Structures are given as structure tokens and as C-alpha cells.
Amino acid sequence: MASTTPTLPNKSKPQRIAIIGGGVSGLSAAWHLHVNSSHDFTVDLFEADSRLGGHAHTLTLDVDEVTCEEYVNGHGNLSANAEEKKEEEDRQSKVDVDVGFMVYNNGNYPNMTAWVSVMQSFQSSRHPRRKHRHVPLHIPRRGRIKSSSHSLAGLFAAPSNLLSPKFHAFLRDLLRFNSHAGEMLLLPPQHPHRMVTIGEYLVREGYGEEFGTYYLIPMMAALWSASVEDVWMFPAVSLVEFMCNHRMLQLFDRPQYQTPAGRSIRYTDKMASILGKNAHTSTPITAMKKIITNNQISYELFTTGSESVGTFDQVVFACHSPQALNILRSTAAEGEEEADPKLLEALQKIEYGDNVVYVHSDPNLMPRRKAAWGSWNCMGKSELMTSHRVGDVKKKKHEAMEGAASGFGGKLTAENGYHEANGDMSHLEGEDGRMRGVYVTYHINRLQNLDTSRDVFVSLNPHTPPKKELTYRRQIMAHPQFTHETHEGRDEIKANFQGKDGLWFCGAYMGYGFHEDGCRHGFEVATAINGVPLPWAKQSTAENGEQLMVLPPPDLARFTFEQNNTFLRKLKHFLTYRIPVAICRALVTRFLKSAIIKGELQLKLNDGTLLSFGDKTPCEGDIHPVTARVFDDWFFVKVATEYDLGLARSYMAGHFLVEPLAKREDYPWTLRSPVASALNETNGVIGDPIGLTRLFLLFVGNRDTGSIGLRSSKQHTYANALQNASGLAVSKIGSFINFLRFKLFMDNSERGGSLKNIHAHYDISNDLFRIFLDKETMMYSSAIYDAMAAPALEVEHPSSGLVFKGSLEEAQWRKLDTLCDRAQLQPGQTLLDIGFGWGGLSIHAAKKYGCHVTGITLSVEQKALAEERVKKEGLCHLITFEVVDYRTFARRPDNRGKFDRVISCEMIEAVGHEHLGEFFWAVEQVLKYHGVLVMEAITTPESRYETYLRSTDFINTIIFPGGICPSLHALVDASYKWSTLTLEHIDNIGLHYAETLAEWRRRFNANEKSVRKMGFDDVFMRVWNYYMTYCEAGFRSQTEHCLILVFSRPGNRALIPLSESRSVTQSKALTKAEVDAWLN
Q1: Is the pLDDT of residue 406 over 80?
Q2: What whole-number distance in Å separates Cα of residue 698 and Cα of residue 575?
């Protein structure tokens, strides 16, 4: 094999080009390369089916006999087909129908209409299809959906709509959507709000259930042949862009659609005639071999039976992405690996969904009221539409932690997963099939202007199949599913792989999934290969004056916005947005100038302004600026009015993201992933999560300035701009309101307040926590890694951090052993596990020590999963779990002095400052006289604790409602006042917690797809990343601690081992050689 890098095919000699796929993309590419090239090209087109056209599929139906015939084209069969067709035209009962490509319009199909006009293969039908308004016809009280799209008369097919409040609410939402949705298209390209799904958009903008259920979702299902689940995940910006450019965000002056006269067989037959013997039908390409000769690349293609069909200089994949993926996986030159893994990954992201298509004459698959019949008819069950999503999210906002309502209680099941393509299509049909929420029936007579004795319909994945005696044909058709992953995959291909090494990709999946999209992208590939513009594009130029090669789709975003941007809307925007933003921007800018002294914070604004704060000296070991891209200037209002909570809520809302640094080496070494090849977590939804950690470390470095003895008039309070928001007085009002709300509603009392707060966080979803916690113990607390201080760089700073080794699983086992060791747990003892989580500690104590464990919690979901794990381990005879408040449990007479040991692992934070004494009282009641309490606690330094108690923050308001991280002094003081327990031993594992949180974050982001399948949205992705990076920064900077505390009554000899030299002295220092060996 040549040692130099292979080059592209040599275009100076005649070229052989293979096109894989005979659908519209392949045919359009083949036509331009074959007919309009100035270069000597030989084009061979390979199609697996026995006909050309793909979704341009014409059938001949005998409506009297209910039979069906299919055209065959290619390989010179055309004249016989044409002659046979002419004879049959005289028979009134026979009619040609299209079951894939059915309608088009001149404005949105510029290349398609120009192409077929040049070929003179068909003209518009003499009777254009009726105009339609995509509006629903009937809102049933329950059960079934019936919607149509042909006239305003259909809007009131059910007279009860006139008196229905829900119907009126729907109309208001429809008008609001048409008026405001287009604003999304004018947002900056990287704005997080452009990343939301249609489900997230409906929830965020407060649309009612009826609007989604009876209009938007069924309409999308009809247009894209998609299930409700797929529609819910459709990128909102793509839908709005499609509707805007197709003039669907207006009730009047909509495009008039037409149907091809003579059906689509006319243009596919014409193409078969043009290509002649170079159109190879019934020839599936199954494999491809990469050949490198004299530094030139070519490809040998193989069909069924490993039979070679020739060697080609360039290959155009005009097939569906899964077929292209399978072919490329077989590609390898001798001694080389398969195709570029990133290309395979990009193709794998592009999802397709199979649909069972029935051509029939059974009216039972249409709305019962004939007045409600339209061109597109959505049939289904309203309870499986958006009502169970929008409505549930609104309800769950009252019980879930802020930002988690979208997926609260979500689970990973087969229903929200994807079926593997294994040839079994049984999951597509029936009431529990892929389209269980809604299916679509097309009225072909109305769409294609048929006049037949029987109505003809096409239904996709119906809940009940049509009657056999009224069914002409059943077939499987695949359609692209437009998720964010599909967009990422196709964008990756366009940016990095189009034309690379002579490989090209085109298909309807490169656009919206319609015939014009496939046609246009086929032409784009062909013009890129031969450098010749399309005949109808030669007189067209782009805005920059460059020659257009292919006509672009219409872009009506600005036009639509200007139409809807009335004087009253402009006035409202000025008063409620621009004025508050201007005032708050000035306040925040002035505040940051005084608050950020060390390091550098940059704010990039939409107008190109770059605001910089700080002296650019290193801060917390970070020598690079932290750059926040502000997408929405409301960011300044949130920060000015709510301070730190405003910053958090602004990030949650997508108002700003932190930009990544150029390369991995630019990050402080303590923040880098231990694996150089680790997943890059940065994306358009969350920004750079490591950048968030850097932002918080910058704030900490400027809050704790190193001043000695600096106090305000109130004890334990730094007089620091970042600590007190001094200089941002307006934020005091918002902060006070948040604090008042916290004190009034974040109740940690025994009478239900604690239960509610625990439920809001820990009952989010067991499957969510499985995704990022360690796979063996499922401990939701700090691990203890094998760690060593990094070698000293400067005398003043002996070490810049710890170097960690080992997996999260190993580290959690080490932590469990440490807790048991600190408790001096002995075989057969009784143990009370307060806040047992998912049972990791309880199982370990029972399994390793044979202890009898009682666990108490307030989380129903945790208890259910923990009991499953105990049963699986066969430990039911040793472990008992109960949902009960620790105070209620302690009051039971039979629990008095019952337990040898009590362990509470990161539960004390949920108790609340006012109830710390009650916790120690409860432990005193249940602990034997010589018993031991081991507590793992997240603590706040004493110097900030008093200020902390008089304020709210992101953690105790949003993540752990009602939670408080006490100071060590507060814990000892509560123990002294409410019990006879004394502090005996302390370990600080805070830096280990920083690494634990970083690993949780990496695992969480690596499993984003699974998180979203459970229903969680962009807001939650940002909430969880903010939470983990916020906490990581606190522990990483050592301004928040995680302590393992040992309490007992005085004179407890059980703790004598904790006085051994191994516990109270420093181990012998390692030599430099030993340190180097450990680090390497």
C-alpha cells in the first residue's frame, strides 16, 4: 500500500460514476451528470427494486375488481408498459394512483418542477388539487381524533365546536403560534432555543393540550409519516422553518398544490429511457472494496452473491442512510481499517422509521362524519397524543424539582426506545404499534382528482387493517425521522465528508424529507462533481453575486416576522424588554467591574460586543479567559434581579452558554478528563460543562480574595462584592423574595414537608440515576479514589491538586469500606441506615459483615429499587427497608436503644438548620449506649455560614428543595444541645467529591440519548450540568467540604482502633521514584 496519503480520483481522464439508489435523488444526480456534463462521465445507476423511482411509486388499480398492478421500468421494458397502459386507459374501472410522491407546488418545488418541465415528462393536472387549510375538524370529548384539511366548513364539522371552551382555546393557540413561532428563525444560529424539540417548545411556550393534540402533532405525523413519539422529538426550528417557507403560518394565501398528470411514472419512465442499459434495476449493492493504485482511489462494487458490478472512480450514495452504512462497513483496502468511524457514526445518527402502507377502499379508516373528510385525515386516540405530556408536565411542576418536570418519573422501556431493524414488522401495526397515538389516511380521490366508483385511500400503520376484500396492496415504506441526532448526522456529512475520497451522499434526509429535498440534494452532488450549474439556475445568483448551481428553497422567515410585527407588538417589546434590559445591563456591567479582579470573564453579546472583566492574571490555576456567549439579553435582567439564582435560571433558560477552549491542553489539568480520548461534552444545548466549572472557580477565586481579618458589621460575613452582591442593590429585592419563598414553602417538618422535598429530587427517576451512578453500588455520595497530591510546582503552593486513579466503581467500594471501618462495624451487629438511597451501604454491610440492617427513607422510588436489589442478592432475611421520617421512627418504643451502629451518608443536608438538633435527638433514642454514629456530611465553612443561612442558593432552592449544608460548628453545637454524643473523628474527602461529580457529569452527558428517551428536555440537561459543575467547583476549590464524622458517647472503647497510628499519623512519605512510578 502506498505510504503517502491517497488523493481524489483523477478528473483529467474519463470517469466512471456509480449511483447507488434509484429514487428521486439518484435519478436527479444521474440526469445532470449524464445530460449536462462537459466532462466525459459514464454513469451507472444501481437500484435494488425492480423499478426506478423509490417513493415515486405508481400503481394501476382496478376499483371494480379491487386488484393492483405495478409498473416495471428500466432495462428496456418501457415500450411494452406504455402500450399496455394505453390499452387499459379505455377501461373506466382502472386508474393510476401515486402512493408516495403525490403533490407539489411551484414555489416550494422549484427544482422538481423545472426538471420535469425540461424533460417534458409531465405537466400539472388540468384540475389542481383543492387549496386546503391545515386545521382540525372535530375535537371529541374523549377517545378518538378526527381531523381534516380541506375547508373552513370542515372546521365546524362538529357543531359542538362552536360552544366548546377547549375549541376556543385551541383557536387562540393556533393564532398565537402562527403569529409568534417564526421569531425562532431570527435567533442567532447557536442559540439554545433553536435546539429545542417541538415537545419542549409546546411546554415552554405554554400552549394548551388541545393545540398539540388536535392540530400540530397529527399534522406533523401526517406530513412526515412519523409516530407521536418521533414527532415529539422533532426539532422545533425545522418545523417552524418548514411551515414558514410553505406559508403555513398564515390562514390565507397558502400555496396551491398540484398533482402530476399521468402520475410520477411519467418521469421515472423518462429517466429509464435516458439511462437505458446504465439503469440496473434488481441490483442491490451489498459491499464495496476500496482500491488504491498509484495514489488514486477507486471502488469496486458488489451485488448479491459477491458478484462484482464494476470499478468506479466516484460513488454517490443516493440510498437511505442505513443502506449506505451497511455498504460502507464492508469497505476496506488490504491492510486498512473500514471507512472513517466518524462517517459511520454520522450515518448511524440519521434515523429512519418503517411504515406499513395500505392502498384500499375501506371507509372505516376515515372519519365517521363525511363532512370531516379531507385530503389528510389523522385518526387515533387523544389520550396517547400530547395530553399525557403537556398536561403531565404542568402537573408535575408542583412535585418535581425545578426544571425536572419534563421527565419526572420517566423510565427506559421498549416503548420509548427504538426497534432494531430485524425484518420483523409486527411492531408497526395495530393499536399498540409504532403509530399507536395517531395514524394517517390519505383520500386519494381528493389528492389526485380521481373520479371512481369507489373512493381510494392510502393508510399508514392503521390501528385496524382495512378489509381484505377492499385492499389493493400492502407494502413497507421507510421515511427519515428528524430528531436532533438526524440533524447532527447530516450536518457532519455535509461539513466533513461530502466528496471526500470520491464518496458523495444525497437523499431527502438532507432536507425536510420531501421529494424536492431529495431532488435538490441529488442535483447539488451532481453539480459539485461536474461543476456545471443546472440549466434553470444559470440566470440566478446568490445575494453575494455568486452563480447559483441549484435553486435554493424559499426563505420567508424575515417576511413572515415583519408581517406579524405590528405596532402594538413593537411597543410592548420596547416597554417590557428593551428598557429593562438596558437598565439591568448597565447595573450588571458596573457590578462585574468591581467584582471580577483576578482572571478574566468575557461576555459575548448578539450585537458583536465583547465585554471583558478582570486583570487577566491566572485565577485558580486557569490562565485563559472564561467566555460566556449571551444569546438573550434578558440574562442581565435575571442576574440583576435574582443574583446567583438569576444566573442559574438564566442558564437553565438558555440565555447564555460557556464557550469551550480551543484544545484539551488549554484547560487546567485538574479539570481535564483522565482519558485523553474521552467524549467531548460540549454541544449546542449545554455549551461547555467544564467551562461552567471554570466560571464558578473564577467566581470563587474572586470571592475569597485572600484578605485577612476582613469582616462586616455582621459576624462571619465577608464584605465582598461577590459574597454580598454589593454594588447590585436591585438584586437584594429579588434575593429577599426568593428567601421569603424558601422560608415559607421549603418546610422540613415531620408533617410532610420533608417527604415532599425528598420526593422532588430523589423520585425523579430511578433509571436516570442508574445512567450516571456507579454500576455496582449505586451510591449517590462522594467516592474515595486512590489519590496522591500532584508534585509541588511552587513553594507557596505545595500542590495544585490531587491525581486520581481507578474507576468510579472501585472508588465507591473503597468509600463503603471506609464508612464501615469508621463505625468499627462488627459481624452480627444491628445497623440503622438513615437515608439508605438505593441500598448500596445496607447491602454491603449485610453481605460483608452479616449485619442485621434496617434502612429508613422518605423516597418511595428508592425503596422500590433497593428492595429489588436486596432480593437479587438474597439478603431479604438481613435487610428491612421502610418509608418513614427519622423522628417518627425514633419515637417508637421498640426502637429505643436497638441499634449498635447508625450510619447516615449525606442525609443530614436534607434535615435543615432548624432541625439539626432533632436529628441528634432521634439518633440518641435508637443508639445503644456504646453505639457509634458515622455521618458523611457536606459542610459549609464557618466563615460563610451565617450569611448562607440568611440567603438562598441554586442547590437549596432548585436541586435539593429545603436543603442546607451545615457548618461543622452547627453540627457539633446541635449534638451538644440535643444529645450526649461527642465528635470523635473527622476525615475530609472534599477533593474526592470533586472528581466523583466530574465523573458523574461525564457519564450523564455520554448518555444524553437515554436521558431524553425518558422524557427529559433541554432545560433538564442544563439544570443537571449546572448542578454538577456548581458543586464540583465548591469541592475543587476546597471552599465546600465533605466530612466523615464519627460520634459516640464518652468512653466508648469500640473506637479504640481509630486511635491506632494508621488513623492518627501521616503515612511515611513516598520517595520521588515511588511518586513517579505511581503517577505513571
Answers
A1: no
A2: 35
Residue 75 pLDDT class (50, 70, 90 cuts):
very low
Average pLDDT over residues 398-418: 61
**Separation CA 259–CA 276 (nearest Å):** 27
C-alpha cell at position 476? 413497507
User: Rounded to whole angstroms, what are the CA distances from 667 to 616, 687, 691?
Assistant: 15, 15, 9
Whole-number Å distance between alpha carbons of 613 and 590: 10
pLDDT range class, residue 374, cuts 50, 70, 90? confident
Triad 260, 265, 271: Cα angle to 5°:
110
SS3 of 1019, please?
Answer: helix
Q: Which segment of 290-299, 703-712, 807-816 scores lowest on mean pLDDT?
A: 703-712
Alpha-carbon distance values, 657 to 15, 406, 575, 627, 630 (Å): 48, 21, 26, 9, 7
Report how far residue 298's alpha carbon sits from residue 359's, in angstroms, rounded to the nearest whole number.
43
pTM exceeds 0.90, yes or no: no
Q: Is 792 helix (H, G, I), strand (E, B) or coil?
A: coil
Helix%, strand%, coil% for the chain, nearest 5: 45, 15, 40
Burial of 548 (C-beta count, 10 Å sphere; 0-12/13-18/19+): middle
Q: How far apart are CA 1000 and CA 1009, in angstroms?
A: 16
Please give the Cα distance from 1039 to 704 (Å, whole number).
9
Complete DSSP assignment for 533-598: --GGGTT-B-TTSPBPSSPPPP--HHHHHHHH--HHHHHHHIIIIIHHHHHHHHHHHHHHHHH--S
Rounded Cα gap, residues 207 and 173, in angstroms: 6
Kindly report, residue by residue over 818-835, the tens digit of the pLDDT: 999 999 999 999 999 999
Q: In Å, how far are 135, 377, 450 from 372, measured between CA atoms? A: 11, 9, 19
CA pair distance 92, 106, nearest whole angstrom: 31
pLDDT of residue 525: 96
Tell me the percentage of the chain whose pLDDT exceeds 70.
Answer: 80
CA 231 to CA 815: how far, in whole Å? 45
Residues in the chain: 1080
Tell me, what amino acid is at 360? Answer: H
